Amino acid sequence: METIIDFFTKEIVVQNINRLKQPLYFFLDEIQLIPYWQDIIKRYYDLNLPLKFVVSGSSSLFVFEKSKESLAGRIFSFMLPVFSFEEYQRITNNNNFEEYLNFGQFPELWDFSDQTKKITYLKDSIIAKVLEVDIVKLYKLRKTYDFERLFWSLLPNTGQIIKSSN
Asked: Is this model's pTM higher than 0.70 or not?
């Protein structure tokens, strides 16, 4: 990451970075894949250079936790909300509220016509990743099997009273 930033500022901008009249923006996606990304950004920030970083990642819990640790007082967090039903309707021309509740938060599913494919995608690409990677990594879970069993047993009982004896 440092190599890219340094190359861009020296070879592409082609002027002394301290003399820039406007800040230079770096948009970095999937930031959680770069080890110690928060320390690298902090280092640039502390140099008081006219650089701004916009970071995002699919492991938003991990990104948020790491940014709180090293970037306290240097960061503005912006949580991008999911599409509202009105936005979903406007974009997809679909007024089916149940479809929106089940799949409307995932624009990548809007073009899927097969319900089975939608469910498979959610289960394999979203839920599995959050359960098996994001939560395990963030909270350092050791009993992942037990956690997954708990999740799958609670899922169909949303809004219900659950007895711990069951």
From this structure: no
